[in-house]
Amino acid sequence: MDESLETLFPERHATLGGVDVVIHEYTLAEQLRHRQPLKVISTAFADLMASLPPDNTEIPLDALYDILAANENAVLEAVAVSCSQSVDWVSGLQGEDSETLLLLWWGVNAGFFTRSALRPVLEKMARKAQESLPAGESFSSVLSTTGTDSKT
C-alpha cells in the first residue's frame, strides 16, 4: 500500500490464529472508553522517549518490547480493542501470530502513543513561549486576524 494511503487509512488486515482481523487506529469513543490502559502505555512510552539522548530519535525495538511487557495487561486490552477481539483471544495467540499482531498494532497506533507522549513536552514549550510574550499579550492575540490596530 502506498505510504500516503497508509496515513489516510491506517488499518491492517491479517489472518491470525485462523481468524481474519482488521487492526485499526483507535476511534474517539475507544480512546475515551479505554483511557486508563492507553494512558498507562502512553506514560511508559513517554518515559522511554525522555530517557533517550536528545539527538536520538530512534526507539530501540528491544526497549519498546520492555515497556510493552512491563505493562502487559494494558497492552493486551489495547491490542484487543484495536483488532476488535477479546483479551482472551489476543493473549492466546502464539508464535508468529502473536508477534505479527503486536507489530501490526504498534504500526497502526504508534502515532497515537507518540502524540500522547509528546503532548506534555509541547504544552511545556507553549507555556514557556507564552511567558516570554510581553505582558498582556497571548498567543491568541498575536495570532488573531481580527485585530483592530491595523488600518485596512
Automatic annotation (TrEMBL):
Residues 130-152 are annotated as: Disordered. Residues 138-152 have a biased composition (Polar residues). InterPro entries: DUF6631. It comes from the Bacteria. This is Uncharacterized protein.
